[in-house]
Write a structure and sequence with these properties.
The protein is built from 8 helices and 10 strands. The protein is of the alpha/beta class.
């Protein structure tokens, strides 16, 4: 298990922005591979390191605890690391490759790309070649959480074929479009947050279950 354990025909699922024990328990029961905790105070999904630590204690072995940070200072990063047993870091801001590598201190990490028109995929993956994964998100004002999909047709087929084991697809995914995304791109994993919410920052447990079910249906269906 785990988010980045690539297995063709079995798309991994990350649900991000969980804030309550009930949310975590519902995600685990639905079969999630990773749970994301947001350490970005402006976000309505943000949690403190201590709350994250309590929620992580509910995760079974094999389910990744992903720490999402946005341009965190060294002090902020260490405050998280000191109490929350994060297993995978998600750098979602303007962090340089050197910053990501230094802060992760040997732990797995992925870098979020804000994909807009003309995004240079090859340059991005070359620049962040030490990353364990590339998270593709939509280019929106601010940093993520916009619930807006980007144009998947803009991803070069050669790039997605070469990097599929490291691709985590995000940006506006929901029960209705995740199947098409998987059929077209075959990413290692998909990442959802607003697509399983009833309001910003409030998760819907039924939608979480239905989202993961939709992923499994897509895995068992012929590709486009």
């Amino acid at each position: 298990m785990g988010l980045l354990n690539y297995s063709p025909g079995r798309t991994r699922v990350k649900i991000c922005g969980l804030k309550t024990p009930a949310d975590v328990d519902a995600a685990v029961a639905a079969g999630v591979d990773a749970v994301g905790f947001v350490f970005y105070p402006p976000s309505p999904r943000a949690v403190s390191p201590n709350i994250a630590a309590s929620l992580i204690s509910r995760l079974p072995a094999g389910v990744d605890a992903v720490g999402l940070v946005v341009n965190a200072t060294d002090a902020q990063f260490e405050a998280i690391r000191a109490v929350a047993p994060i297993t995978l870091w998600q750098f979602h801001g303007d962090e340089s490759p050197a910053q990501c590598q230094r802060l992760a201190e040997g732990q797995p990490w992925m870098k979020a790309a804000r994909v807009g028109a003309g995004f240079a995929f090859a340059d991005f993956s070359l620049q962040y070649r030490q990353a364990n994964a590339f998270l593709l998100d939509a280019l929106v004002e601010g940093y993520g959480g916009g619930g807006i999909p980007f144009d998947w047709s803009g991803i070069p087929q050669t790039w997605i074929s070469a990097n599929a084991p490291q691709v985590v697809l995000s940006g506006g995914l929901n029960v209705h479009n995740v199947g098409e995304a998987i059929a077209r791109l075959h990413p290692c994993a998909v990442d959802v947050s607003s697509g399983v919410e009833i309001s910003k920052g409030v998760k819907d447990h039924v939608l979480m279950k239905e989202f993961i079910q939709a992923v499994r249906v897509a895995d068992a269906s012929p590709s486009l």
